[in-house]
Amino acid sequence: SPAIVWFRRDLRLADQPALTEAARKGPIIPVYICDDETARHRAMGGASRWWLHQSLEKLDMDLRSLGSRLIVRCGRSDEVLGALATESGAEEIHALHHYEPWWRNAEAAVARKRRLCLHHGNYLAPPGSVTTATGNPYKIYTPFWRALRERMPPPPPLPRPTNLPAPKTWPKSEAIADLKLLPLRPDWAGGLRDTWEPGEAGAHERLSAFREAVATYEARRNLPGEEGTSMLSPHLHFGEISPAQVWHAVAEAGGSTDIFLGEVGWRDYAQNVILQYPDYGTRPARDPFAHFPWRTSKEELKAWQQGRTGYPIVDAGMRQLWHTGWMHNRVRMIAASFLIKHLLIDWREGERWFWDTLVDADYGNNTVNWQWTAGSGIDSNMFVRIMAPLAQSEKFNASDYIRTWVPELADLPDGEIHDPSPAHRPAGYPDKLIDHREARERALAAWRDAKTA
Ligand code: FAD
User: Fold this and answer.
1) Residue to probe by mutation, ligand 1, list 122, 263, 356, most atoms within 8 Å of CB
2) Does the pTM of the predicted model rise above 0.95?
3) Which CATH number characterizes residue 218's domain?
4) What percent of the chain has pLDDT over 90?
5) pLDDT of residue 420
6) How close is the Cα of 246 to the center of ligand 1, in Å?
7) What SS3 class is residue 90?
8) Residue 252: its pLDDT value, please?
């Protein structure tokens, strides 16, 4: 009898242990289930859906080139898998482990009724397996990474299969186009199309380009105006490439790669956090944040979302995000900190916006980084360390980055562009929502209130 291979955020053929293991035993039925019911309020955002559409098309093409195909269905994963197993006579379902709380629930529901074989392969080490000497999970990144680093390198990646045995008859499939993952009107995805090539082949192209640049990663990774980072995040999120593949390719490139690999380690760390705190997306991990006097301002939230705060570096980042579905990490920190500390708007509002607009929107990475920035996380920055956006913009030499994303400021000289004086501010560019010093005082006062509440 055939086995079902249940694809989720692991849309690749090479180094895909669920696929390899199932195909070793006999015919396989690869399936992707478009399932908003299981994730509920964590259903994929708009930018992720755009990505998913392309990635599923590529996966289907790649499977077809090996004599197989992708069956696409909609509905609740456990029900769809049950029905498909009955229809096809499949006795086993193979999948990779996923750690989002809704996926863990779905896995449990499937396993109650069917033989579900879960494999590791989306992280450097199985989340939950990196523990202290006493067997407890780590709370803090640095010791986590030290322990994980000792277990590296990860096992060598599995080769891409050369042929995939097909079942005698193929079950029915929806058409990918009918899933309605793409935006209709307005079509906001032009910038995404120009920036990305979703799919396994696109992921490997990014990786080879980055191998040439990894030697300068440490020096350039904080400069938003340069292409100094890998831009692999959406590919890693959708599992079009595995972290083990990235690790081995980068290690072969040689040179100093530790800082880069440490960032890939943050990805594992974030899974280790959501395993311990499944509701990390809604619940701040530290006490004072249960009573934080957040402000509510629809207008200011909207100004932030649209890149109209009057702080050029923040606006550039938010517009890069809207246009490309991605934002440079340094600017993510600045823009997130600005929302939380300058505008005193609840980090969960920002997290939600990123969830909808990032092509790499990832439950672990997004919530861990938002709580880190807010100071509410188990391992985080302190709330009272308030980033000065204008100083950051100068320090990391963001003038060309601002010129690209805030074109109305493009003619200002380097000395003016980070903080245009009212006399030089072009018509149409907004005044600052709040002055930096005033924002700082207000944030510190709010923090004192939260602590005494
Ligand atoms: P590189 O610098 O080339 O790093 C390589 C890989 O390491 C990345 O692709 C990513 O998978 C991982 N990585 C790097 N930095 C981090 C980090 N701080 N935390 C976790 N993993 C990391 N990253 C996401 O993948 N999804 C998110 O939803 C997300 N939300 C974020 C929200 C905020 C407020 C902040 C400050 C950061 C967020 N990040 C998120 C982390 C980071 O900004 C992105 O992973 C990074 O910018 C992706 O670009 P890159 O692939 O060029 O990274």
Assistant:
1) 263
2) yes
3) 1.25.40.80
4) 96
5) 95
6) 14
7) coil
8) 86
The residue range of the domain holding 366 is 287-448
Give the helix/strand (H/E) hosting 71. strand 71-74
Instruction: Give Cα separations from 274 to 37, 308, 367 (angstroms).
Output: 20, 33, 9
- CATH number, domain at 316? 1.10.579.10
**How many C-beta atoms surround the C-beta of residue 176 within 10 A?**
20
| Segments of the chain scoring below 50 in pLDDT | none
- Measured CA to CA in angstroms, residue 155 lies from 15, 259, 301 at distances of 10, 20, 45
Nearest residue (CA) to ligand 1, atom 34: 370
**Is residue 50 within 8 Å of 59, Cβ to Cβ?**
no
| Reported ipTM | 0.99
Contacts of 384 (CB under 8 A, 6+ apart): 375, 444, 447
DSSP class of residue 152 equals P
Residues 132 and 256 in one domain: yes
Are 231 and 252 in a shared domain? yes
Strand order through the sheet with 3-7: 71-74, 28-34, 3-7, 92-96, 115-119
384 and 364 in a common domain: yes
Q: Supply the residue whose CA is at minimum distance from atom 43 of ligand 1.
A: 329
User: Does residue 282 form part of some domain?
Assistant: no
Residue 165 lies in a domain: no
Q: Which of 229, 329, 358, 381 to mutate to test the pocket of ligand 1 (most atoms within 8 A of CB)?
A: 329
Pair of tokens at residue 19:
């696929």
**Does 209 lie in the same domain as 356?**
no
**List of residues 6+ apart from 139 with CB closer than 8 A:** 276, 378, 379
Total domains present in the chain: 3
Domain shared by 234 and 351, yes or no: no
Residues with CB under 6 A from ligand 1: 221, 229-233, 236-237, 263-264, 266-267, 270, 329, 332-333, 336, 354, 358, 360-362, 365-366, 369-370, 373
Look at residue 191 and tell me if it is in a domain.
no
Measure the CA–CA gap between 323 and 227, rounded to whole angstroms: 17
Q: Residues 146-155: pLDDT tens digits?
A: 999 999 999 9
* Ligand 1 midpoint to CA 333 (Å): 10
At residue 255, the pLDDT reads: 76
* Spatial distance between the Cα atoms of 65 and 163, rounded to a whole number of angstroms: 9
Q: In this structure, are 147 and 206 located in the same domain?
A: yes
Domain-embedded: residue 209: yes
| 309, 255: one domain | no
Instruction: Tell whether 271 and 295 lie within a shared domain.
Output: no
Distance 38 CA to ligand 1 centre (A): 25
Determine which residue's CA is closest to atom 52 belonging to ligand 1. Answer: 231
Q: Where are the beta strands (DSSP E) in 120-237?
A: none
CATH of residue 87? 3.40.50.620
Q: Are 317 and 408 in contact (CB under 8 A)?
A: no
